Amino acid sequence: MAVLVTGGTGFIGSHTCIELLNAGEEIVVADNFSNSKPEVLNRLKKITGKDIPFKKVDLCDEAETEKLFKEYKIDEVIHFAGYKAVGESVAEPLMYYENNLGSTFNIIKMMKKYGCKRIVFSSSATVYGIPETVPIKEDFPISAINPYGRTKLFIEEILRDLCVSDADFSVVLLRYFNPIGAHESGLIGEDPKGIPNNLMPYICKVAAGKLPILSVYGNDYPTRDGSGVRDYIHVVDLAKGHVCALDYMRKNKGAKAINLGTGNGYSVFELVRAYEKASGITVPFKVTERRPGDAAECYADPSLAKELLGWSAEYGVDRMCEDVARWQKMNPDGYGD
Ligand code: UFG
């Protein structure tokens, strides 16, 4: 009886492992370390005091995936594994479709073969494309504007089809807004490879003196200070949402898409100031052109998560930045080599 956590050594996956163990769940972690480090497992042990069953698995390999289901009695899957860089997906679309869809097909095949009928999927607010209004509700039209977003959209549809074909399936599609933050221990956090694409890790690298200056992509949006507004959510809040989703799936069948956000929007300048306050470090920035494909404002209506999962975010942006600053200070080179 175990929950399979794919991509369990990644940023959101690792924080979710802790919350699952705190809730008394038994877990098995599968990852191929394509964007994470084995050191995460040591850190998880330090935090939880538990040895986490782990398998290094390429989920695009059907036989390897089957071994997991043979070895463990898997009752539920939380499927984080996947490539996630928007720009890279535009340059290498086939790699994204092959990896994100291929791994999901193998997982679903094995779920069907081994009688496992519950899956939580890491979807994204990216499926709303450029929203016409905010806050965003789950019944807003969905569309994607890059291959990464399309993999999320396609997998949502595939999982919905699965529920139509078999009334015993339960699927929760969690649409994450902008996860930042780190565990309060400072032992785990976000450690992106190379130059970060996302705002928070970029701010960190500039604050640490590893990159010279932050580019603020546009200050002429119709927002309160002209910069883009997003719904930043603490990764620990997000992780707890997955524990609630498991509970929900055990009581409800069919597919549900649910936003995980705070419902509050913060601008680029506001996030920079919050990080400066938390870290005591000034972050130099310059305003540049808008980044193609960026929405002016994107934040959730999180009321469905409250209604169905009994979940809402606890932490505000100051706490998110304090936890990131601690992680950054304790691990200036992330998890290292
Ligand atoms: N931004 C900058 N400078 C940077 C990076 C970002 O000004 O160096 C701005 C962006 O223009 C945007 C905001 O900071 O206004 C947030 O940008 P991120 O790249 O951090 O996040 P996005 O909202 O663009 O995208 C994120 C994830 C996607 C996910 C999407 C869902 O990266 O995977 O949220 O809305 F799909």
Give the distance, in angstroms, between the N- and C-terminal Cα atoms.
Answer: 34 Å
Taken in chain order, the helices and strands follow as EHEHEHEHHEHEEHEEEHEEHEEHH
Task: Identify the bound ligands.
Answer: uridine-5'-diphosphate-4-deoxy-4-fluoro-alpha-D-galactose
Give unreliable regions as ranges: none
Mean pLDDT, to the nearest integer, reads 97
- By CATH reckoning, the class of the domain at 2-181 and 233-261 would read Alpha Beta
β-strand amount: 15-25%
Q: What is the tally of helical segments? A: 11
Helicity range: 40-55%
What would you report as the Rg, rounded to the nearest angstrom? 19 Å
Reading side by side through the largest sheet, how are the strands ordered? Answer: 3-2-1-4-5-6-11
Q: State the total count of DSSP E strands.
A: 14
Largest sheet: 7 strands, parallel
The fold-level CATH name of the domain at 2-181 and 233-261 is Rossmann fold
Principal-axes shape call: globular
Question: Could you say which structural class the secondary elements and strand pairing correspond to?
Answer: alpha/beta
Gross CATH architecture of the domain at 2-181 and 233-261: 3-Layer(aba) Sandwich
Under CATH, the homologous superfamily of the domain at 2-181 and 233-261 reads NAD(P)-binding Rossmann-like Domain
